[in-house]
Amino acid sequence: MIISLIGYMGSGKSTTGRDLAKTLGYEFIDLDQYIENKYELSVSEIFEKFGELGFRKREKETLAEILHKTNVVLSLGGGTPVYYDNIDVINTNSVSIFLRVQLPQLVKRLENKKHTRPLIAHLKDEEMMEFIAKHLFERNHFYQKAKHTISITNQSSSEVLNQIMDILK
Ligand code: S3P
């Protein structure tokens, strides 16, 4: 089985994914990390060299490659489900879980973490709320196609993990 975690940047996909993989005894794969190792470039460098479209093509190709594996927890990039037919491919080949985090919390979490994320790296702190609100509005349609949704407010990471384990029972 493959479990894929979907959600906006800063929603905790990688942290939760790592914990979940450990609990299940599955391999953990972070899609961005995997892409960085495969192409020997950081996500930001891929955006710079090949543009966003160049990144999306590599992302799609790598996603297909990983979905052939088994017993994997896969943390997707925030934009992965939004491009091409990726959400259908994800839902056909994995159990998808959307980690839904409210806007103010996302903004807070991303303020010191935007430099590695080319889509928001250029934003000033006071521009984050409006940008992310609009971005989420465009993306929620795709995120909501995930098989399961977990709403995260103030839960600790172990509470989030328990919620996911309940879903998987
Ligand atoms: C992106 C999210 C990033 C990374 C890239 C684009 C997006 O992943 O794939 O910077 O379009 O939301 P994280 O969600 O892991 O930050």
UniProtKB/TrEMBL annotation:
Binding positions (ATP): G10, S11, G12, K13, S14, T15, R117, Q155
EC number annotated for this UniProt entry: 2.7.1.71
InterPro entries with a match to the protein in the record: P-loop_NTPase (IPR027417), Shikimate/glucono_kinase (IPR031322), Shikimate_kinase/TSH1 (IPR000623)
Catalytic activity: shikimate + ATP = 3-phosphoshikimate + ADP + H(+)
Pathway named in the protein's UniProt entry: Metabolic intermediate biosynthesis; chorismate biosynthesis; chorismate from D-erythrose 4-phosphate and phosphoenolpyruvate: step 5/7
UniProt GO cellular component terms: cytosol
Keyword Isomerase: no
Family: Belongs to the shikimate kinase family.
Identification of the protein by name: Shikimate kinase
Classification lineage: Bacteria, Pseudomonadati, Bacteroidota, Flavobacteriia, Flavobacteriales
